[in-house]
Design brief:
Blueprint: H1 3-11, E1 18-20, H2 21-34, H3 36-49, E2 52-54, H4 59-71, H5 76-88, E3 92-94, E4 107-109
Parallel strand pairs: 1-2, 3-4
Length: 111
């Protein structure tokens, strides 16, 4: 499945989508290296499409991310993505990343 198709479903309201503030930070800094304007545009678009930003307000999300990271060889940002999916009861959208194998999460592999 392509990201565009998933975002179309978010826009039309047939799918809810979440992104951890940590993963939004990662997206922003990667884009910002090449174009500050693109970083602003893409993160603004995600919000406008209806992607909900999940903040780190209490002990639940960061502790869950830490527990996932402690048992799986993955980046901290990937642990936050997995924790956010688990906390929201969502499927985790991933590419070809092997580090998500073995987690008790449903995944959607994108092309």
């Amino acid at each position: 499945m392509a990201v565009e198709g998933l975002l179309d479903q978010v826009v039309d309201g047939s799918l809810e989508a979440y992104i951890s503030v940590v993963n939004l930070t990662e997206l922003y800094y990667i884009l910002h290296r090449y174009s500050p304007e693109a970083a602003e545009e893409k993160t603004r678009n995600l919000r406008a499409f209806g992607v909900k930003v999940v903040p780190i307000l209490d002990d639940g999300l960061w502790k869950l991310a830490a527990e996932i990271k402690s048992g799986h060889p993955m980046s901290l940002a990937d642990a936050y993505a997995a924790a956010t999916a688990q906390a929201t009861g969502s499927k985790l959208v991933v590419g070809r990343d092997a580090e998500f194998r073995g987690l008790p999460l449903e995944t959607i592999r994108i092309s």
